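#random but structural
TW: two for the price of one
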Amino acid sequence: MSGGGTGGHIFPAVAIAQEIRKRFPDAEFLFIGANGKMEMEKVPQAGFPIIGLPIAGFDRGKLLKNVTLPLKLVASLLKARRAISKFKPDFAVGTGGFASGPALYVASMMGIPVFVQEQNSLPGKTNLLLAKKAAAVFTAYPDMSHFFSGSQTHFLGNPVRQDIITGLTDSREAKEKLGLDKNKLTILSVGGSLGSRTINNGWKNNISSLVSSGLQLIWQTGKLDYQSLRTDSTISAHPNQIQVCEFISDMALAYSAADIIVSRAGAIAISEIALVQKPVLLVPFPFAAEDHQTKNARALVERNAAKMVTDEQMPTEFWPTLLSLCESEELRSEMSENLQLFAKPAATQQIVDTILSILNLNRP
């Protein structure tokens, strides 16, 4: 298994490995990651061994740092070859990120069947390259086969946390459990573990409008802005309407309570939102690799499954766009229905089913 750099690459790889382990308890796994990246911590926490490659991405900000890239690539290919030769895997799965390039390239050159899982609506360069040698490519968005011409492409969705699937409850009950008014329209705002300053500022600039509209807000600020927002007198003056938290541990409960969601447009976030089928206003992170968050958001907007406001539009368009959602139950209902296309609760199981079918492997 190889994938990393961000949670969006790591989580699918871990979820696929866990599903394989469930079916084959004696299976052996080897993850290949990039030194210094978060997979080197997260994968062992999930109970899987990992080795790190010295691979790194192209640094557009500091061009001189790229002088050593060819050496790092060669060293990574050699290390990956040694590890794979010793481990002798039956197949390899790549989910994107720096390390998956050399790891899966080496595996394919050694005649090992490789599978690619692409989380975004615009494939990353690594996965586009690897797909040419892949036994199958798994996508999270429909109509992506033109990116992977010549490859067997399956639209199966992104693996999502199982507790999201099993933990959803009645909306009114969830609101009461969180201490909110069960009869009021409730907005859930999420911006990732560090938080989105753009989204946080959007709320901060519209607190009076939120309060006067009688709406409720569950606001995950992230680590960066939590202290300043929690102690802001304008916000803290309305504890019954605004719940400020740094991190939400029970996302299933928060999703259940929400009538509308405001979120960045990362691949896994969108897959979870599609699963819970709540109308969403997406604010794509503009500096994501190849601007893939904007592409993800547009894929939903084109099917009227989401609204989108860019970072640049936030000062003027955030509140009017959100209010249009709040004021139209018909629009919210239509968006929820259209999200069904992207809802793939059995993605992990179906990805593993397809791998085993292609390899003609059965459960022991």
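TW: number two ↓
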Amino acid sequence: MNTNEFIQKPVKELFFHYLIPAICGTMVTSIYVLADTIIIGKRLGATALAALNIALPIYNIFFGFGLLFGVGGSVLMSIARGKGRHEEGNSFFSLSLLMNLATWLICMVICVLFMEDIAIMLGGTSETMPYIMEYIPYLIWGMGVFFFSSFLQTFIRNDGAPKLSMNGVIAGGVTNIILDYIFVYPLNMGMKGAALATVIGSSLTVLILCTHFFSPKNQLKFTLKNFSPVFLVRILSNGFPSFVIEIAAGFTIFVFNLQLLRYLGNTGVSVYGIISNTAIVVISLCKGIEQAAQPILSINHGAGLKNRIAKVQSLSIKTSLIICAVPVLLGLIVPNLFTYIFLTPSEEILTLAAPAVRIYFTGFLFLGVNMVFICYFQSVAKALHSLILCLLRGCILVVAFVYLLPPFLGSSGIWMAYPAAELATMIIGIILYKKDRSH
């Protein structure tokens, strides 16, 4: 799809042309984690599930770095194209690619040298450390595919090939599920089998995405011309909110795990494993809406078409509210449905999980709106506004509430921290958005 189509085709047609492939892609990405979670929970039990939940933030970090350079560079590339500056767009792509490669190599060295220290820092206990150390070495050695999976998806989608991006992720996800079952059940490879399946699935995704560069429709050209230090700063500042969103998911898991270990022990962490993995699916759906809207917003912003931007925002918010309402209703009506998906639960886990799910899931409605606002500010290169919302919902408010509420409300306060943080962020997001649109 060329630039003119982004600014001429009906907004609704464009949005839904991108929405289905984007949601399919982000959903299958979440399946990488879900397949591990379900198979490990059913096959290896609650302690192994707790170990997986403790290890998950490292996956968020690797995927987040790919988004830092992928989203940061692709948004700026799209804005440049909207202004007719195609050479400048290629410079953003090339510099983003080099920075992603360099960051991967630096992270590889650090993680290999301090692997066990990282596992302990994430919250590994004497019960969970054997499982964690069986899982994370394979993620660390295979981290490059996570860096480039998230990086390539964003650029290829912004280059007008959303279906290829979707197909690559689906192929990798299906491969991951099949290998997860084979490695963990018939081959009895335990945690390392689940990790290997994830790395192999992501590797296939990257290989398929790379075929875009041999397509006649490819407009991504590598160049060493016209590099500027200012470009690097702009890529980092614009991509940082996406990085924070991804890291925040891991950071939230990390902070919740510490508080749950203190109040409820490994059982609480196991219950949170159920909740956080369901949250991954909801966040993936919201990211799909983001990814559908972002190229349309960025190119139309570059072209100065404010009415089309307002239409995209309206569609995004309505779609988010409809999609997020489904897990909220299920959580309120049949909370233990999610527990049985991930575990063969004990009576203790069932008793603890039902109220936890009901409280925590209410936050998904506010999450959907927050992700739309974050995407808007990022797409129109107002990175500071986007970053403020990311930090509030993912770091500042969730940490404040998860430590402030439990002394008054007990363990219920831990579960309440998430919806409270999302609601407060949404109120601030509405204020920032109204101020921006009034200018």
